[in-house]
Design goal:
Layout (H helix, E strand, L loop, with lengths): L4 H4 L1 E11 L4 H13 L6 H22 L7 E10 L5 E9 L7 H4 L16 H8 L2 E7 L3 E9 L3 H6 L2
Antiparallel strand pairs: 1-2, 2-3, 3-5, 4-5
Helix pairs in contact: 2-3, 3-5
């Protein structure tokens, strides 16, 4: 994923985390990414958006990617970029090496779920899209899925005007 660096701006910081695919580790991922951007003093709305998106991505990896197997690894990477206009951009990748998604386009449709009749609402990707500025999903059957999410952390105008 490093090839995206040139497109996003200058890479100024990054974080990598891996943990077992257990439900209790979903909060670890949310807190780690929030802590990673905390020095930028983001608004509570931005923090909430990022935490929600990360939570949904990790939960999808646990429930769908690994089908509840708690002995697999989930990888979370966060990248902070600075652009020429001094705005800041966060990219978070949540990756698993599980079952993969056969039809990403269909899986991203609201209310679609591979666990019919269960307690899953099929809104994970819809929430990720709603709470981030850009969402990209790459997946290969039986090889895993990488969900990449981008979030603007500072507005260019605010940076230029010194606010």
């Amino acid at each position: 994923m490093r090839e995206a660096v040139e497109q996003e701006g200058k890479l100024i910081n990054e974080m990598r985390l891996c943990f077992l695919s257990r439900g209790e580790n979903e909060s670890l991922a949310r807190l780690a990414v929030a802590g990673f951007i905390a020095p930028l003093d983001p608004t509570m709305d931005v923090l909430d958006d990022i935490r929600t998106a990360v939570s949904e991505a990790v939960t999808n990896a646990i429930v769908h990617g690994y089908e509840g197997n708690t002995d697999e690894i989930i990888y979370v990477s966060a990248f902070l970029y600075e652009r020429e206009d001094l705005s800041r951009l966060l990219r978070v990748d949540v990756e698993d090496t599980g079952t993969g998604i056969e039809d990403v386009k269909k899986a991203m449709e609201p209310l679609y779920t591979t666990v019919p009749g269960g307690e899953r609402a099929g809104m994970g990707f819809a929430f990720m899209e709603a709470f981030t500025d850009r969402l990209e999903v790459k997946s290969e059957s039986q090889k895993g899925t990488c969900v990449s999410m981008w979030k603007e952390l500072t507005e260019p105008e605010a940076c230029v005007n010194g606010e």
